[in-house]
Amino acid sequence: MRLARGLLATFLLLIVFVTPSRADTFPRPASLEPNITFWRSVFADYSRLQVVVHDTWYLDKVYSVLDFRSYDYLGPIALDQLIKDDTAAEVARIRAIFAKLDEAGPKPTGLTADEQRVFDMYRDDPTPTRFRDAADPKRLRTQRGLREKFAEGLRIAHRYLPEMERIFREEGLPTELTRLPLVESCFDVEAYSKVGAAGIWQFMPATGRIYSMDVNDVVDERRDPIASTRGAARFLRHNYEKLADQWPLAITAYNHGPAGMRRAIEDTGTTDIGVIVQRYRGNAFGFASRNFYAEFLAALDVDKHREHYFGKLEGHVSEPTRVVPLDRPMGIEVAAKLAGCDRDTVVALNPALMDCVVDGRRHIPSGYALRLPAQHSAGFEERVAEVAAEQRVMRVSAPSPSSSRRTASRSRGPVTAHKVGHGDTLSEIAQRYGVSVASLKTANRLKHGEIRKGQVLKIPRGT
């Protein structure tokens, strides 16, 4: 039987983590502890091949856990269908238990072990319709485990967190907030939601633009973990200032919106997130919004104690990088060549670049802050300037179509260019192109005949 029972006992044996050092910043109301414990288990204990059947209002009421880990030999399609079918059957079974308990009255007899366990969960609830209420589709929910995905998210996160924390410190915000993408996206850089949110912070296009991100068909900075972090910091600070300087409310507003949280405060008459979660019944304040802050606290716990849960995680190594603003459009292959690295490296460091740029159909736009490996970025601007100079020379020296026949019979006029290399002299260059040293000096205004490495010289013809 793919069924593990007695989860309540497992929950009681979980390590209870102490509040992080900034308890005053991120309070943990006692009423939210069951929710925090539940999400900690989802993030760190339950596998993607386990399904938790639970109550949506009382997350300590876990009815069963379906375990499909021994069936991972099946192909993904067959395995997904098995999980779907068995989960539906289990939900129906739990609902049938509720129906039996609802009919059995306050002192049922002849219950199975499973039925007795569910009955005991509600022993202290005097509500006559408690079992009927618990069977409601809005109350009976399933949740897949996220252990593998969360571990990978932690590996990715610690590649970006030093820079993200620096940004949050600059913005005057608690650095713990940089763990919020563990809840939003598990630090999936390529994450897209069904409604169009993108990146690790899951910004919608309009919100991204409000917070100074480029979002268009060439560049989408929502997809860049660093560029979007600056916007996220400002968005969170805006929420904080609008919501009584309370981080639990500002964090929840990241999911529910600041206007929605103001309505919650007005409706409940409090800024206590524990009370709001228990009492507020706004139409849009559903399961995700009610649990968002608890998930954040659980993510902090798991990150802080990641070795306890996952052992030694091999993090994604982050090589030093440098940002170089482009002063002109540039193809990605050209950018990689001038940086002395491969195209894939440039693509990996610049996830904001859209596919049309990556595959070469569009240029990286002027003004874009191109991130390059630090060891390859030295001299990048100089090489870009040299190429631009060569292009200007070639444009000047190239004959126009209307004058091509006239210039074909002429022998004068610059027709090409030479980039001075190490050890080059004017006499050697003149000899190479069959021109005189004097003509080189005249064409390039070299009064004293001095040249330097990297200089681009016009080469006259027929002199």
Total number of strands? 8
Encode the helix/strand succession as letters. EHHEEHHHEHHHHHHHHHEHHHEHHHEHHE
Number of helices: 22
Return the CATH architecture of the largest domain: Orthogonal Bundle
Major sheet: 4 strands, antiparallel
Low-confidence stretches are: 4-21, 403-415
User: Strand fraction band?
Assistant: 5-15%
Instruction: Briefly note the CATH topology name of the largest domain.
Output: Lysozyme
Structural class: alpha+beta
Output the radius of gyration: 32 Å
Our count of domains comes out at: 4
Percent helix, as a range, is 40-55%
- Cα(first) to Cα(last) distance is 93 Å
Mean pLDDT: 86
Task: Name the strands of the widest sheet in spatial order.
Answer: 1-3-2-4
Apparent shape: elongated
CATH C-level class of the largest domain:
Mainly Alpha
Structure overview:
The chain has 463 residues and is α+β, with helices and mostly antiparallel strands. The protein has 4 domains: 3-147, no CATH class; 149-310, Lysozyme (Orthogonal Bundle); 321-378; 384-459, LysM domain (Membrane-bound Lytic Murein Transglycosylase D, Chain A), CATH 3.10.350. Helix content is 49%, strand content 8%. The chain has helices at residues 7-13, 33-44, 76-104, 113-121, 130-134, 147-170, 180-184, 205-210, 225-242, 247-256, 258-268, 273-279, 287-304, 306-310, 332-339, 343-349, 355-358, 374-377, 380-397, 404-408, 426-433, 437-444; strands spanning 3-4, 50-55, 62-67, 140-144, 321-325, 369-373, 416-419, 456-459. The strands form 3 sheets. The chain has a 4-stranded antiparallel β-sheet, with helices on one face. A two-stranded antiparallel ribbon has the order 5-6. A hairpin with a 6-residue loop joins strand 2 and strand 3. It starts with a strand and ends with a strand. Mean pLDDT is 86; it is low at 4-21 and 403-415.
